[in-house]
Amino acid sequence: MAAVAKPREFSGGTVSIPTPSITEAISIVDSFLRPSTLPAGTVIAIVGEYGTGKSHLIGAVLHHALSAPEDRRPRVAFLEARPATFVDLYKQLIGTELRRDDVCARVRELYADVLADALGESELTAEIAVRLRRGEVDPVEVSDRLNLMGSKYLARLRERLEVVTRNRAFGIVLPLLLRHDFADAAWEWLSGHHPDPVLADRGVDTPIATEELALEAMGVIALLYSTRRKKFVLAIDEMNKVVSATRKPSENAVDAFEKLIKVFAGAQALLVLAGLPDYLDELGGTVQQRIGRTILISPLTSENAIEYIRQSQEAIGRGRVLHPFTEDTVRYLVKLTDGNARRIIRLCSHLYRHAMDLSPRDPDRALVTEAMVRKVAREQAGARSTDHVRNEIRQVLAALGLSYERDHWMDPQTDSRADYWVPYGDEDGAGCALVLTDAVLTQGDCDALVSRATYLQTAAEQRQVLLVVVGLLNADFVSELSEAFSEEPISYDHWTFTETLSSVLERQLRTLDRDDTLVLGEERFRRLGRQQANTQRMLEQALKTLTAMRSSSERSLGQIQRELTELSTADRAAHPGAESPPLRLPPPVMMLFTRAQSFLDGLDQVDATLRTMFAAASGDSANAIDARVAVRGQLRSPHLFSAVGVGAMLRTLLITFRDSVNEWYRSYVPSSSGDPYPADKDRLSALCRAYDTVYEYVPFYRLEDLDGFSPQLVDGNVPLPPQFGEAQEVFNLLSGQVQAAVLESVAESR
Description:
This protein starts with 19 loop residues before the first helix and ends with a helix. The chain contains 31 helices and ten strands. The chain has 750 residues and is an alpha/beta fold. The strands form two sheets. Strands 2-3-4-1-5 form a five-stranded parallel sheet, with helices on both faces. A five-stranded mixed sheet has the order 6-7-8-9-10, sandwiched between helices.
């Protein structure tokens, strides 16, 4: 189960649940793809919070479009917006998605139509005109062979392009792609560079370097690809990284974007936009009115999640089963995650592995329980995540010019610790307290936080208390926590947290600035009410604390043994100069790493290719020249170097994972029964989660760009097709298989 959707990797085997959002989007695509003599373009806006499935929906839309019959199949382009501008998006479109030969082919089709119109008027050349429209002959060759006045017909092509593109510069530049002496300069300008003097002489003296020109250029591309009744689909994901409250577009850019939408709606083109809700607000009401359909991504229901688990199990050969989950635990999981698809899928993956770890000898008895869901949910909001949040809080406080104290106790005798205390105002003890917690899953979690909030607010009259939840927040407790704290809890989200915290802090501090006696009186009454309502909970919490203190007075032998192991590990860490320990992995575990390495070697043969080239260079000079030419040709690919980087990242990840598992074997201590202690099992699970955390963000599909870069490129042999799909499956399943093999080998050694 992949926790991060990647539209480029969407395929027929991708598990996809037909939610209302997906069903609606597919129906729009079907309507767009129907044959029509009239323009049938449209614009779809997909709106949803992070992790709700926007990227997955785009993948489903693009895959559905590409699965259409060949005569109706559109040209599809996908752009993934990064924190950038519309200029960067255009360069990604023209430099990555649309190749030079592809764009030239579209211009050739238009030129063929121009020649066909002229030649169709004569019976002698009518047959050639028909062949031109069918694409059976090259219009440039026909023009040369018949000694036609090339400049005359190229001028007609320019006039037609100016009508189609509505931009004189594109009408001048695009026909030059068909002329060998001007093609490089034309493509350079289209790629966003400054115009060559040969273009400046023709009146094209401005580069495509502003957002307005970039958006106009994207419209030109859409029109160019919508000729001859062909259709064009452009999807842009993460639009909020281009347009948001912190990245507001200029007025000219908004006007240009409105024009782009008009172009798509008036041509045989489909524009799909996806992002957080605020990106549409920043584009303005006029743009929103021109969008054909806005699709709101709704949370997954329990039925959706159950069906997803069944299909995922079936896809990997386990059968259409829910085991080790139950319908009740899935409903509980959906409730905790508020139906967020990414969180559900990520937790399902960890829960499956955890359940199987507890029953390695009898998988049929494995069971995911609600307690297990809470345990895994807390692990996912671990210390590392909390440390990251603390860093972002410090950045917000510094940006607002506020002084603060870490771990400030209002009263050492009570649970009145503020993770961050921001003194504010003239009154002693006035200010704002920030409380951090990893997750709120049970009534006990909620009661402890309510008690803490009450202690914090009792210490001074003018004091605001805010709660930041790093992990999951059970929706059942939101109302109770909102009453205890100064406002609704802030659930951490990597993309929006700093903006949210900054606005909430400013609002709360403005409250402290007020001198209105009535306002202060109302605030005191609210605080008093909260304190009285929580008194009983505080007493109950104190009783629970006393019980916990009694139960923790005895320590087990296993815990002592774990502490001795940690001391041993710390001693080894204190002597970093020592040589790396030899590998002592059992054969089944070592075989998993060796197999993954061999598949990676089969896909990434850069090292072997370069060695073959240098070997050829030391031999026959003719072979050396051929080898250099072959390799140089591959090096011109714009995707090769990013593919090499992906390969290097995977090698590093694989070796680091292997060495970490090897170190686990060296340091774990078996219990009296021969099994590892729970702490050692947790360490092993943490190693596998660390692998998954990095791997799920590695763009594995990039390795396909290394297909032609192999030793056969130099020696001339016929290369074997790389086993890309099988290799990806090996890396997808590696952590789970390693963990299972490790525990099985430990059990067998007893």
